[in-house]
């Protein structure tokens, strides 16, 4: 069994590398959602945290951040891409990964087929190449709307592929994580993706690549214990739950009450596990600034 798959070997001395990539069937135009029509119905959005009501048009403009308490609600992978990428620059990575049900889990194939139809996604990750304020980068977004962004064989391969393509194109990579952890329907093979994605991140780092991880709510289980926390720069959204096991499981295991705010982004920043907490409305500017600060390392990041 090939645990790490077929790896792309990058030739750092090949000046035509990026042009060759564009000729290969790796990238395609992503089908992004059309601009949403103006809502004249007066529909309201109710915050799950404080209960405040906000006009739906306003909460969409704020990218589902409550203007009253600052609660960051979940957003789709497509909306996440639209919030950071320069308009018209996103090209989706082609991932022709066959569906597998290694445990013959009942109704699993039907569930995945239904989610593909409902979300329009290939699996629990949307990845591609885009520009952020003119800086070219690979971006991968875990989709909480697709089986809670759980990591199985396909998701592990898509994350690994994103690292490999970033290395071959000599680009930085930004990964937005949102996951409940390993996918139980695939048993031990889902846990093996922790090693696979971690190896991809290490190889990318050893070859001088810049990796930025953005932890969103929730980032838990095998994702938090692997590639999500191996970045050069680790950011998080306010209030995000980040950790391996849930607080209740930990308390039952150690027989002690956990500190206030344990496993939340603010607690992890205070204890050095997160480099910074960034509001969703400021994420695009922050990512652009990080890419700008590192531009001297990789001239190909710019158009």
Would you mind describing this structure in some detail?
By secondary structure, the protein is α/β, with parallel strands linked by helices. The chain has one domain (25-41, 75-301): Alpha-Beta Complex (2-enoyl-CoA Hydratase, Chain A, domain 1). The protein has ten helices and eleven strands. It has helices at residues 17-23, 56-61, 77-84, 108-119, 153-168, 187-206, 221-224, 247-254, 265-270, 283-293; strands spanning 27-29, 44-46, 53-55, 91-93, 125-132, 135-142, 173-179, 211-220, 233-236, 242-243, 276-277. Strands 1, 4, 5, 6, 7, 8, 9, 10 and 11 form a nine-stranded mixed beta sheet that branches. The chain has a two-stranded antiparallel ribbon with strand order 2-3. Helix 6 (187-206) links the parallel strand 7 (173-179) and strand 8 (211-220). Helix 5 (153-168) packs parallel to helix 6 (187-206).
């Amino acid at each position: 069994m090939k645990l790490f798959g077929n790896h792309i070997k990058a030739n750092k001395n090949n000046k035509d590398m990026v042009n060759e990539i564009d000729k290969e069937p790796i990238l395609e135009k992503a089908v992004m959602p059309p601009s949403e029509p103006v809502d004249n119905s007066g529909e309201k959005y109710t915050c799950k945290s404080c209960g405040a009501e906000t006009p739906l048009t306003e909460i969409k403009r704020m990218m589902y951040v409550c203007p009253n308490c600052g609660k960051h609600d979940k957003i789709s992978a497509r909306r996440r891409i639209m919030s950071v990428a320069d308009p018209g620059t996103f090209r989706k990575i082609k991932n022709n990964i066959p569906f597998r049900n290694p445990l013959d889990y009942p109704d699993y194939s039907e569930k995945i087929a239904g989610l593909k139809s409902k979300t329009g996604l290939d699996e629990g990750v949307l990845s591609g190449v885009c520009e952020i304020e003119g800086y070219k980068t690979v971006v991968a977004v875990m989709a909480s709307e697709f089986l809670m962004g759980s990591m199985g064989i396909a998701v592990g391969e898509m994350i690994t592929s994103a690292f490999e393509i970033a290395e071959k194109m000599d680009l930085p990579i930004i990964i937005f994580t949102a996951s409940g952890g390993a996918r139980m329907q695939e048993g031990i093979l889902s846990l093996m993706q922790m090693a696979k994605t971690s190896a991809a991140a290490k190889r990318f780092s050893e070859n001088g690549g810049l990796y930025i991880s953005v932890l969103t709510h929730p980032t838990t289980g095998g994702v938090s214990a692997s590639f999500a926390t191996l970045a050069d720069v680790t950011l998080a959204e306010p209030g995000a739950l980040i950790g391996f096991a849930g607080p209740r499981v930990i308390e039952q295991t150690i027989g002690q009450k956990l500190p206030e705010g344990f496993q939340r982004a603010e607690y992890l920043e205070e204890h050095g596990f997160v480099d910074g907490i960034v509001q969703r409305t400021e994420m695009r500017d922050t990512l652009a600034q990080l890419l700008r600060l590192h531009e001297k390392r990789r001239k190909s990041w710019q158009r």
